[in-house]
Amino acid sequence: MELRRIGEESRRELLKVIGGIQEELTHAVLAGDKDAIRVAEIVWDKLDDETRRKLLPHLLKIIIERAKKISVTGLKLKRKIGSYSFDSDEICIDSTIDRSAVKIILNLLEYEDILVSKKEEVRRCIALMLDKSGSMVGEKLFLAASITATIALTSYRYNYDYSLIVFDEDTRIIKKFGENKNVREVVESVLLLKPYGCTDIARALECGLKELMKCKFLDRVGLILTDGFYNMGDNPEEKARLFPKLNVLCLPKGDLKTCENLAKLGKGKLIKMVKEIDLITI
Predict the structure, then answer these.
(1) Are residues 216 and 264 in the same domain?
(2) Each residue of 8-51: pLDDT tens digit?
(3) Same domain, yes or no, for 127 and 175?
């Protein structure tokens, strides 16, 4: 009881201090002060709604610019045989000979008779699942927002489709497959989340897989951001086995063993997160 009382007093003191600097912090962030931006990220969930509303447009811009610098690996390419164009990759000599042998002999070969191999991105579905339980405070929420922005931008660039699911002891779908939402709208939804509650990873995976199976593309990937600690629901390992591919983004100081097992069972990869991310595998 004494420890709880001390903890509650510390929290009240912290909130009091934060409350006293919010106006000054707002001015500093809007002026581009990097230290102030860092502080805003740390105490984001403790700021009042009015302060968050003022800072949101500026911080959204920063997050999206960060996301543009994050490298994405795991992109798939396929080769397709087609007619020649000046931006083609390489000529398929054997296929061209098989198709136009007579024209070659008669020296009548034209550009449209030449067959080439072209690289095309494989259309992919990504089910992104983000932890929003009580542990996802401050910087972790900004990390989740940066990941969301990266997946949204990658999907737009490569004509992928993605869904966004947030979870604690329950799940909520922020974006469905096939739904048209701009990047700012989706990232804003993540930043405005209120971290709360326990963690049910199994339920999140079940919801993610269900959504993934609704996507019209056949290349399907699950991507979950979690610390690996769950205090509600079933063991998530059985759910992970059902994914065609499940990559796990393990938060700093997370349960690395659980995250590794989920990635292994999901036939995917484990990515250890740090405060500043520069690489995501999908």
Answers:
(1) yes
(2) 455 566 556 666 788 888 888 899 888 888 888 888 888 888 99
(3) yes
| Same domain assignment for residues 102 and 69 | no
* 37 and 20, same domain (yes or no): yes
Helices 2-30 and 34-42 pack at an angle, to 10 degrees, of: 150
Residue 149 lies in domain? 64-74+123-281
Tally the domains of the chain.
3
Q: 222 is written with which tokens?
A: 């699950």
Q: How far is CA 131 from CA 73, 81, 151, 169, 256, in A?
A: 22, 43, 16, 10, 15
State which amino acid sits at residue 46.
K
210 with 221, same domain: the answer is: yes
Low-confidence winner among 10-19, 129-138, 225-234 (lowest mean pLDDT): 10-19
Note whether 15 and 29 are same-domain residues: yes
pLDDT greater than 70 at residue 282:
no
106 and 195 inside one domain: no
Q: Output the pLDDT for position 4.
A: 41
- Give the list of residues 6+ apart from residue 207 with CB closer than 8 angstroms, or none: 129, 165, 167, 171, 173
Whether pTM exceeds 0.70: yes
Rounded CA-CA distance 189/131 in Å is 14
